[in-house]
Amino acid sequence: MAKNQTPKGPKPDPLTREELSARFGFALKVIYSNSELARLFETAVKQQWTGEKFNAEVRNTQWYQQNNQYAREAWVSEQLGGADWAAKVDNAKLAVQAAATEAGADLSPEELDSLSRQYVYQGWDQPSRQTLLMRALAEQIEVMPQGKGLGRGLRGRAGSFTDQLKAEALANGLRYSDDWYVEAARSVASGLTTEDDWRRDVREQAASMFPVYGDRIRQGMSAYDLASPYINMMAQTFEIAPDQIQLSDPYIKEALMGVDEQGNPRAMGLWDFQKRLRNDPRWMKTKQASDEIGTVATDIMRVFGLRG
After folding, report:
1. Are residue 61 and residue 92 in the same domain, yes or no?
2. Which domain holds residue 123?
3. Under 8 Å between Cβ of 134 and 189
4. Distance of alpha carbon 118 from alpha carbon 103, whole angstroms
5. DSSP conformational letter for 146
């Protein structure tokens, strides 16, 4: 034997599949659940790879590169099955359903199953990824029956927001379709816009409709509140309830949307407004008109000495 030559001895027995899979940190059941991983593992068995070698080759597979960390971990857990996987799925369903109820999204059993699976596979339980859940739920927000005798509308947080938005729109003389409100709710739920963005849009449109009050409307006052002196005078003149008068009434619109001789926005004076109302045939049917005409007639009769 040459000097310093290492004596040859028997080669160690090759590690079994079970021993290698344990060394690699993978269960055999998991490895053989994917054909790409299974082929790679068979090569590792033949060549007796180290754990570092096997894991490095795994990172080069399509399976690894086409799935993010959350999807890979979820897939491994699903292949192992058992109580841990069942608990993850059940917890995901509870979380998705709770978020859907709060957001106002109505989910079918199939949609709940699909979103719960995405919840696990995409890591939607992580704080940094919860917006992904809300974006998915936003697509499920739609007008639904509210209950017996309650008509149709949005539910949950979407319903509360759109109810407030609709009230603000009506107070500014604006009407939108159900689709517009659904779009608003979905946009807010998905995080693309905020509730204040939509309220600001409503006020901006109202300001452009009633430019004489534009600045005050943008600051938060409603067109209805600004029109209240005209509404109250019209109610008194025609002897009707103020809530029967809308901003869309031609007299109210004329009073709020007038212009001066130079074409600048100008609200009508209340005295001129009342004179316009008294030219309407409805005023002649009121008690005040009858009393006023009666008083004028009495005064004329006194002038001619026909009544003392």
Report:
1. no
2. 79-138
3. yes
4. 18
5. E
